[in-house]
Amino acid sequence: MKPMPVEHPPIAVVDLDGVLADVRHRLHHIDGASKDWDAFFAGIPDDPPLAEGLAVVERLLADGHEIVFVTGRPERTRGDTERWLARHRLPRARVLMRRDGDRRPARQVKRAIVRRLATDRTVAVVVDDDPAVCDALEADGRAVYRADWMDRAGPLHRAQEGDGTT
Ligand SMILES: [Mg+2]
Description:
alpha/beta; Rossmann fold; 5-stranded parallel sheet; 6 helices; 35% helix; disordered C terminus; binds magnesium ion
């Protein structure tokens, strides 16, 4: 008998910042004219998880997708990033990151990463919160799920998630 061809599951590409991780507490480091990227990335361990993003990952897994995390964070943050993912019980999955020193806009970096992934695999969906990234990937023909929940996840929202009352 001929061996069966190996069937790979479809890939779901999932962004981190603004999709799974609430980065708002550290945005002030890069708001002004002088951007302190080191301080911005140093706050990664303290990011609260975004419940809606975690639920999306669970649903994608249940639907048989392989998750691949694709982030504009630089490689030098890999240790903190992987520890954060493990702490919040996200699946062990590939984490594809920006090369250190790569200063291209996220839309270019991610477009290149996703194109590379799609050369020998099916990329079924991309979940991202950056409109410029979403636009670029849609222009490549990708199915995009635009994450819009970080701005809604305020203290009230978190309180409601916590005890079911307002
Ligand atoms: Mg993002």
